[in-house]
């Protein structure tokens, strides 16, 4: 029972790291799956396969190598020179992703809580800094709270969708988009999210150490991500094409269910942003600590200060500018790690 509970913590951390604000808002599900109509479930199934396979591979390799940070893993996979280069690029990407997450938190505070953008940035930074003083355990604990809440919210949306006349449109919805774009979509989605999540999956694999626990965690987490994606796809498909005009599609659906559900949705968006920010900052702190030898709290404070400065550009601008570039880079990383035969984890 203790081992299964530990696997559940691994799964929740995996889900919470991968399924961030983009999923909670509905924007990612719409962009990568729902707009391709009846192909959506098949694309989600392919993405789920990658999450289970590559997620397990990253954690098991980290445990086998006792890797302290994602740079240790990349050096082993790709050699010292290429691994260091990939890690440098990852450092820049994760810093920018953190800035995007922080900007998103500021936007939540300004648009929904009337507390001001700068106040949102500072409150989020303070919470992140205090939580990270407890390391990987605190990340597992917060995800063990946030992810079940997100799942419960998703179940509520699916239940409401099943009462709608178009409940089965996720199986019949037509799309005139290119089959090539549809075929590439699950690779881009899985690649970007897995490349970003290795900042947490590597230290998590090392901290847990037990292969059986990690395999179960990868299965539970990967399948959980797939179920959440499919649930989001079902919910959005039933309201197509009208729902596609919203910047935050799930927000439009939440408003239909009343003010209390809408407030839960706003809180959920913030917590997903917060957990992603905490997880990525932790991975970067470990990476820079192994290079510089500086105290972790100093590195964390410096990283959050940098994100505060970059966050002044705003959430929308950063998201639209940075994410497409990161997706292409991550596709190369996925190709390289999938070809590596250093360890073939038994799934």
From TrEMBL:
Keyword tags: Membrane, Transmembrane, Transmembrane helix
Q: Which domain of life is it from?
A: Bacteria
Instruction: List all membrane-crossing ranges.
Output: 42-65, 85-109, 115-132, 139-159, 179-205, 217-240, 260-282, 294-315, 321-338
Return the protein name: Membrane protein YkvI
Q: Which organism is it from?
A: Cohnella faecalis
Q: What is the lineage of its organism?
A: Bacteria, Bacillati, Bacillota, Bacilli, Bacillales
